[in-house]
Amino acid sequence: MAAITEQDVLSALKSCYDPEIPVNIVDLGLIYKVGFSPAPADNSAEAKQDVAVEMTLTAQGCPEHVNISAQVKSRIEQLPGVSTCTVNVVWTPPWTPERLSPDARKQLGIE
């Protein structure tokens, strides 16, 4: 099986949403970095990878912080070839509306 890629992770995360904003977290620009490292060998025949995600939220006081992080972790760990996922919420650089994708801008009526 081919190793999982950043695009695989981002595609999977397009199913994750901030419950207060009807746009997925990728198009919101909340994902800053995706990293990979070999997972410790287990008894399975396939090599697996650990995934680390650096992400932010639209506001530091976001009440959905824990739920969104858990959603990201769960979704990535469902991908074939992934052993574990670590989610690190960072605040630098701070999120701004400039991080919105063109699709997100259309969905939110910002043109």
Q: Which secondary structure elements does this structure contain, and how are they paired or packed?
A:
Layout: H1 6-13, E1 31-38, E2 49-55, H2 65-77, E3 82-89, H3 102-108
Parallel strand pairs: 2-3
Antiparallel strand pairs: 1-2
The proportion of residues forming helix, as a percent range, comes to 25-40%
Number of DSSP helical runs: 3
Structural class: alpha+beta
CATH structural fold name? GMP Synthetase, Chain A, domain 3
CATH superfamily: Fe-S cluster assembly (FSCA)
Question: What would the principal axes of the Cα set say about the shape?
Answer: elongated
| Rg result | 15 Å
Tell me, what is the CATH class?
Alpha Beta
Distance between the termini: 41 Å
- Indicate the mean pLDDT: 90
Largest sheet: 3 strands, mixed
